[in-house]
Amino acid sequence: MLDTLTRIxxxxxxxxxxxxxxxxxxxxxxxxxxxxxATELKAVxxxxxxxxxxxxxxxxxxxDFFLRRVFQVELHALRLAGGTVLFWVGFHALRRGVFFExxxxxxxxxxxxxxxxxxxxxxxxxxAASIALRSRDGLFVPVAAVVAALLVNHVIMRLxxxxxxxxxxxxxxGALIRITGLIVMTIGTQMxxxxxxxxxxxxx
Length: 204
Prior knowledge:
The protein has one domain (2-202). Helices cover 83% and strands 0% of the residues. It contains nine helices and no strands. Helix 2 crosses helix 8 (160-169) and helix 4 (75-96) packs antiparallel against helix 9. The protein starts with a helix and ends with a helix.
């Protein structure tokens, strides 16, 4: 039981790092400055969390089948692609201090599915990790880890305004985004290297 809880905790932290809640804080705080945004924050965050959860858990259950049987793609190729995308996202945040540049003229409710649920929560790296965790740890532990990570991310999204206000008051939001971007770059690099390593190991 303790071993299972430990695995869930470790996987939760890993998935949470890929989801990267801090990337949502700056976007949501900027979009909820109007009365409409503040009123719809609860509905938008709930909808995006549910959709992202459906995508990630669906990837766990059916992802390996579709990759191998339908698209003839091995998991190491998905790791490499997801790691490359994650590296670029982290590099963009490190260089420019933002994870996502939103259109201020867009309606807040339109962000729930795209880009909030996908690709900001259930992005390529998180999807690749979900499939990899399923193949390594079975189904129960990864599902529990994804649900726990999404719950933590959901709470942070709901509190995006006070979190952004507190970070901005001490002028650390930009620095935190850049530090998080560096961590995301590192995770993306490791994921890509794992994919290359698996590919080399699979060579005849």
